[in-house]
Amino acid sequence: MLAAxxxxxxxxxxxxxxxxGEFPPAPEPLPVPVPDSHTHLDLTVGEYGAPPxxxxxxxxxxxxxxxxxxxxxDRLVQVGVDVESSRWGAEVADRYAPVLATVALHPNEAPRxxxxxxxxREIEAxxxxxxVRGVGETGMDFFRTGDEGRAAQEExxxxxxxxxKRYGKALVIHDRDAHADVLRILDDEGxxxxxxxxxxxGDADFARECVRRGHLLSFAGTVTFSSxxxxxxxxxxxxxxxxxxxxxxxxxxxxxxxxxxxxSYLIPLTVRFLxxxxxxxxxxxxxxxxxxxxxxxxxxx
Length: 301
Description:
Distance between the termini: 60 Å
Number of strands: 8
Radius of gyration: 19 Å
CATH superfamily: Metal-dependent hydrolases
Strand order of the largest sheet: 1-2-3-4-5-6-7-8
Oligomer: single chain
Number of domains: 1
CATH architecture: Alpha-Beta Barrel
């Protein structure tokens, strides 16, 4: 009997490997609904399927929306990173009332394209659609792209800024190890009325500079990581009136589930952490995030 039980029992390493591919349990619902201002539904459901809490028989996108709504995350922004995902997001936003879309070429995508101009023309055509409310994620990323890719990134970023201004859409910025260059290019081109610093990754000084410029700072699950003291200091100096929250799902899952798949239904973990970190009443912070999201992207319905 003991031998049989041993053969059927998972080792700790096997159990950890299995759980790494599973969605975490749903957290306690928020008292006031908020949006997830930046998610990748295509990647989430494509890689992991529907998160727990969706209605039986739903397609994976509908199930993800239902799971999020069940914990007080009632609106989502689906973000494009290339022409294909931007088209997909625009179509999903047309089909599902709780979803709006943004369209863009990710900074790391721009240097890989054989015809950047043609891809930018396709992004601009999508940007004119009614339920496409943002241009991004665009920006600069010096983490993976070497010096040879910087010129294409900058050209693409400048083009996206122009599209956002032409259509009056929010500019959603991806900034990795490129704070000074992002601000330089925004100054050169003139920033659109609404700028969202996606997955804010700077320190308190950079946060103050973004706040001074009137930008919105969107915090992801990274703010909950034990190594993110500088990011928590940045959150502490960000006024609630300029704060958004996001998942960047399926990545950046907040603690205590780091390493497992992320989805919009886990937003409450990050919101509660931000409320504790900033000393803001939870209801007040939720209401501010909701208002800021609609100021950035307009009404969902």
